[in-house]
Amino acid sequence: MGVKKVTHVLFDMDGLLLDTERVYSEVTQQILERFGKTFEWSLKARMMGLKERDACELLVNEMKIPMTVEEYMEERRRGHAAKFPFCKPLPGVQKLVSHLAARYVPIAVATSSHKASFEIKSANNSDLFSLFNGNITVGDDPSVKMGKPAPDLFLTAAKRLGHDLADTKTCLVFEDAPQGVLAALNANMQVVWIPDRNLELDPALVERATEVIYSMEDFVPEKYGLPTFP
Questions:
Q1: Rounded CA gap, 213 and 66, in Å?
Q2: Which of 54, 70, 87, 148 has the fewest Cβ atoms surrounding its Cβ within 10 A?
Q3: Are 147 and 182 in contact (CB under 8 A)?
Q4: Residue 174: beta bridge partners?
Q5: Greatest Cα-to-Cα distance within the chain, rounded to the nearest angstrom
């Protein structure tokens, strides 16, 4: 797929900037084990990138566990709160974000995580998140009316970053989740998909993504008209 020169860059967080998807899997599997069930990747893939309640409703309904959505959410949150502070940036993340920030490329985090969850995950990663200069849009932001795959999150983040939204193809989104890739495409933005290697990729979505790589270490900035690494 052809690429257009990029002026603004948006980053998902879970499983893209930070190694948090592992925690989501561990906590949910611990809950499901009590009911003799297994958290399969096919279901996880459908949950990735969704707003918290949407993801929890999907799991409770699909797995038919004897818990209400609220009960599952509460236990899940407790498990996450214990583990999220120990999550670290994934390979290549610090290098790329530092590089773009140093060259004054407008960058932002656009995450489906709620503000409280973002604060837990980012608390011990200030070296990374300080580079965004407060340009963080979270899933429970009042301006984000609909979760992924709707484009609201990315359009809101781009607008706050100073983009006029006249030509959103000049925005580049980094995503790991299929729903997030769709959200970027629905915002008419370019998208680099960095999926987990356990994820079974939809060939049609691969075709629509601007690029698919398996690590941020493999990203080549100049391909998108961004400053070259020194």
A1: 39
A2: 70
A3: no
A4: 11, 192
A5: 55
Helices 52-63 and 69-83 pack at an angle, to 10 degrees, of 120
HSE-up (13 A, CA, CB side) for residue 105: 26
Q: Which two tokens stand for residue 8?
A: 């603004």
Number of helices and strands in the chain (H, E): 10, 6
pTM: 0.91
pLDDT tens for each residue of the chain, 230 residues long: 679 999 999 999 999 999 998 999 999 999 999 999 999 999 999 998 888 899 999 999 999 999 999 999 999 999 999 999 999 999 999 999 999 999 999 999 999 999 999 999 999 999 999 999 999 999 999 999 999 999 999 999 999 999 999 999 999 999 999 999 999 999 999 999 999 999 999 999 999 999 999 999 999 999 999 999 99
Encoded tokens for 115: 């503000």
Q: Which two tokens stand for residue 221?
A: 């900035």
Alpha-carbon distance of 169 to 167, in angstroms, equals: 5
Cβ pair 3, 224 in contact under 8 A: yes
Which residues lie closer than 8 Å to 94 by C-beta, 6 or more apart?
127, 128
**Euclidean distance between CA atoms 23 and 14, whole angstroms:** 10
| Residues carrying an active site annotation | 12, 14
Local structure of residue 5 (DSSP, 8 states): -
pLDDT at position 2 is 79
Asked whether the bond before 106 is cis by omega within 30 degrees of 0, the reply is no
